[in-house]
Amino acid sequence: MKKIVIKVGSSTLSGGGPSLSKPAMDRLSCQISELISKEYCVILVSSGAILAGKEVILKSGRELLPGPSIPSKQMLAATGQVYLMQAWGELFEKHQIPIAQVLLTKQDISHPSSLQNARNTFNALHSHKILPIV
């Protein structure tokens, strides 16, 4: 089985706009679904949590913290990650593809035993036809 890693940035997920673009994300989910149907093992590396966090905060009527400080970015990413994964889940559900969120740090891939654990996780997800999203 061939493996493919797909990295999508915020500009792709937004279609160049100020918020996540469901049509752009839907097109990606269709393309990834097609690859999976052709027996590719796909890993999706998705940016967009900060962008999604801004959208969530603004929709709730709250103001964004001024400036791009680290606490502000972390707050937006933490808030937006939930929304981003929910959006991916809904899109891939249309293709009967369950998703999993995989959180990795540099340390997770720096040590041989940790790297093997990560590989084993990806292999288990793929064997169950679950799309890992990093």
List the helices and strands and how they pair.
Layout: E1 3-8, H1 10-14, H2 22-37, E2 41-46, H3 49-59, H4 70-93, E3 99-101, H5 106-110, H6 112-127, E4 131-133
Parallel strand pairs: 1-2, 3-4
Helix pairs in contact: 2-4, 3-4
Structure description:
The structure is a single chain. The protein is an alpha/beta fold and 134 residues long. It has helices at 10-14, 22-37, 49-59, 70-93, 106-110, 112-127; strands at residues 3-8, 41-46, 99-101, 131-133. The strands form two sheets. The protein has a two-stranded parallel sheet. The chain has a two-stranded parallel ribbon with strand order 3-4. Helix 2 (22-37) packs across helix 4 and helix 3 crosses helix 4 (70-93). The longest helix is centred in the middle third of the chain and has 24 residues, at 70-93. The relative contact order is 0.16. The model has no long low-confidence stretch (mean pLDDT 95).
- The helix fraction, in percent, is 55-70%
Rg estimate, integer Å: 16 Å
Order of helices and strands: EHHEHHEHHE
Proportion of beta-strand residues: 5-15%
Poorly predicted regions are none
Whole-number average pLDDT? 95
Distance between the termini: 20 Å
Give the overall form: globular
Query: Count the helices. How many?
Result: 6
Number of strands: 4
Structural class: alpha/beta
Strand order of the largest sheet: 1-2
Largest sheet composition = 2 strands, parallel
